[in-house]
Amino acid sequence: xxxxxxxxxxxxxxxxxxxxxxxxxxxxxxxxxxxxxxxxxxxxxxxxxxxxxxxxxxxxxxxxxxxxxxxxxxxxxxxxxxxxxxxxxxxxxxxxxxxxxxxxxxxxxxxxxxxxxxxxxxxxxxxxxxxxxxxxxxxxxxxxxxxxxxxxxxxxxxxxxxxxxxxxxxxxxxxxxxxxxxxxxxxxxxxxxxxxxxxxxxxxxxxxxxxxxxxxxxxxxxxxxxxxxxxxxxxxxxxxxxxxxxxxxxxxxxxxxxxxxxxxxxxxxxxxxxxxxxxxxxxxxxxxxxxxxxxxxxxxxxxxxxxxxxxxxxxxxxxxxxxxxxxxxxxxxxxxxxxxxxxxxxxxxxxxxxxxxxxxxxxxxxxxxxxxxxxxxxxxxxxxxxxxxxxxxxxxxxxxxxxxxxxxxxxxxxxxxxxxxxxxxxxxxxxxxxxxxxxxxxxxxxxxxxxxxxxxxxxxxxxxxxxxxxxxxxxxxxxxxxxxxxxxxxxxxxxxxxxxxxxxxxxxxxxxx
Length: 513
Ligand code: GLU
Prior knowledge:
CATH topology of the largest domain: Rossmann fold
CATH superfamily of the largest domain: HUPs
Bound molecules: glutamic acid
Shape: elongated
Number of domains: 5
Number of strands: 13
Structural class: mainly alpha
Radius of gyration: 32 Å
Helix content: 40-55%
CATH class of the largest domain: Alpha Beta
Distance between the termini: 83 Å
Strand content: 5-15%
């Protein structure tokens, strides 16, 4: 394939949704696979919907996922600027070119007039009325008014917009790489505004002018843009430009039920839909992020890559390099992909297990600070090694492994009541004494000592080991007991067991009373 140039073109109207992450990823994979260029273009022509901080958030998210752009507002490039607001001055002449060619016209309707027109139509049963070849004659525009009237309104310069002119009864076919041929009848299209009264182009004009000027070869974007594509194709034709190839990605569906995965589904189903926490100042809502939940970016990438793309084999774990090698547009699936929360957790677990202990330790360090936990590097690394197979999310290290940092205040009493026998107390005291006398407090030495004592005294593992675990960790869940003891250290284990035995004895006495 020659000279692949693709772009991810988000509008900074909010944080980057998981669907946007997928669009960016597929564009990135496609570019890298073909030795092409991955461009980040910020489409900020809609000033009303502009949200401060959204662009920074998008950039930070792409960085976190390792989706580095070759050309972008920050990295620059030969086709810049890469922020549409900074390209403002270049769009008007294209809108005017279409007017000159008779493919666009001026409109003077105010938004109030348009509203009233829409409402009146609705009231008379004409739902979803379109500004088009049928209705434009009843509106205020340069096609319905006399040239003098139009001139006057143009000179006045108020509420002047430009709309695309679309002739009816033409068949427009998109050769979509994902969906095959999708055909529209031009009679069904609305004559969209391409240039606004505020001097800014709309998405439609800016998008195609930029795709053309930036020499975009392939457009890979969400399904929600499919219905705009016939308008885009018409504009390519009107300008005499060759359109890029199009691929429209199907929606990501909610975990349960029908419909698109929305931003509020995260809270509802207990998972994030945004890379990082996001506070919506308009609604005062906080949305929680993948990072804060404890997902690793490479796990999210792997998981998201399979939401709507089929690698062609049964494997599930792919590094970015493998994805680049395998990716192809013809393996993108047409059906919507369902977001499976458990599967996303499974991926994260696999990536945590596979990750180097030192890297995990570095990720946990800020979390240690937050929790006021102070341990040595060596302790942290051993802790990571013991716990990593038992966690799904990074914070699970601290919920499941809390006892590595202090003895829990609450011991699981039920287990103590069930397993602890008062008559075994002398044996436990004897085992503590043996531990005190050990020269080397290693897991294998502790194991041999304890297990031989149990066998020699014919006590049964089931009566002793759970109590030792409970007495050391306060819970029955955790990694290998003897390795846990080694890491906690001789004195700590002896102290914990001694005081836990007092508690168990008291529980038992209370139970017997
Ligand atoms: N600015 C559009 C968006 O926010 C881009 C659509 C496209 O890729 O053409 O999704």
